[in-house]
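Good day; I would like, with your permission, to put a structural problem before you. What I wish to show you is a protein chain and, alongside it, a tokenised description of its three-dimensional fold. Please examine both parts with care and let me know of anything in them that strikes you as inconsistent. Thank you for your consideration; the sequence and its tokens are set out here:

***
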Amino acid sequence: MKGDLVFGVNPVREALRGSRGAFALYLQIGASDHRLEKIVALAGQRGVPLHRREKTDLTRMCGSSHHQGVALDVEPFPYADIDQVVAEASESGAPGLLLVLDGIQDPHNLGALIRSAACAGANAVIIPRDRACGVTGAAEKASAGAAETVPVVQVTNISQALESLKTAGYWVYGLTGEASSRLYDIDFSGNVVLVIGAEGEGIRPLVRKQCDVLMSIPLHGGVGSLNASVAGGIALFEVAKKLR
């Protein structure tokens, strides 16, 4: 392979529709999903070579059995520039909404959060370069192709990035289980940054200090916390509802 391997029907289709360079399409021998025919046609339009592989070979290549019979060798994921994201959000005339993920480790959670961000109309997702999951093939699969439709920014220091965003006119809201302020009671307005912490650990202390408001999702029953991607999805749509 020359680059990264994207797998699954939606991620492969969106990658072929996007601007990333594609080197080879791998199709499972005997696969009958009608959606694969459209993917083959898209690859043909772009001049991407087609290679047929046994299911076991695709599973080995992808490191997952959830490839749905298709994989695409593409250029490494193109992370966006944070300054460009902020500028484009400002030019749109609508309130900016950025999702910041402080150390999400699970690619499935990352992909699910990217998908929720795209569906909620967020301008971008911001992740740290170190000690966190990047946009891998597994994350793109979990995002159902959304990683190709919403900018993802990778920064060296989340705390410093938040400080810069505050200077640019953003108000920073951190989601944490022990906060006394309830998500549903907050009147979101203007430019908003929503911060979601790592699975189990939550938002780190230095990042927490950059939050203007800490808030929680009220829970009922015997379970004490939500999965990071579920909590992030709930918060994203609550913010989006009040902003738009």
